[in-house]
Write a structure and sequence with these properties.
Elements lengths: L8 H6 L10 H15 L13 E6 L6 H5 L6 E6 L6 H12 L5 E7 L10 H10 L13 H13 L10 E6 L6 E4 L4
Parallel strand pairs: 1-2, 1-3, 3-4
Antiparallel strand pairs: 4-5
The structure holds zinc ion.
Length: 187
Amino acid sequence: MSTFAHLPAESTEAKPVAARTGDSVTDRLVEANQEYAARFQNAGMDARPALKVAVVACMDARLDPHAALGLELGDCHTIRNAGGVVTDDVIRSLTISQRALGTRSVILIHHTGCGMESLTEDFRHELEEEVGQRPAWAVEAFRDVDQDVRQSMQRVRTSPFMLHTDDVRGFVFDVATGLLREIDPAK
Ligand SMILES: [Zn+2]
């Protein structure tokens, strides 16, 4: 009997490290943490990112910002959400990153095949109809990923709370090739 019965069928097949009977996914992860902690050698690391950079990226499961950018533990702040959208909460994190923890550069990463391209603001209306409450947040869906990266760069650059806005760059990660394509902010 599969312990992933509540997940879509493809998830069962895609996970070679299937849980032992009776384990939840979280149980498995907690077990992995015990092995991680047994090998842990990063005590005493500085909380201020060594490369003074903050990365804002989509939460997409196919995007590993650390691996894609050659980043190591301690190098950067990583801020992720659906779409890699620069929301007020991302501005909150970037403000703390720059003012309290010394980062100076911002890298924004959207990607090809993002789920946000197939959503619309109708998502909110449907939610409201279903649960009887309208979410305070915008869905921030987009049609044109390049344009959304430009808008995200603009939101960071024009935020009054940022200390450093001279090195804000935006990219689209190709989930088929692993390559980043830089977006020209001026277009
Ligand atoms: Zn995405």
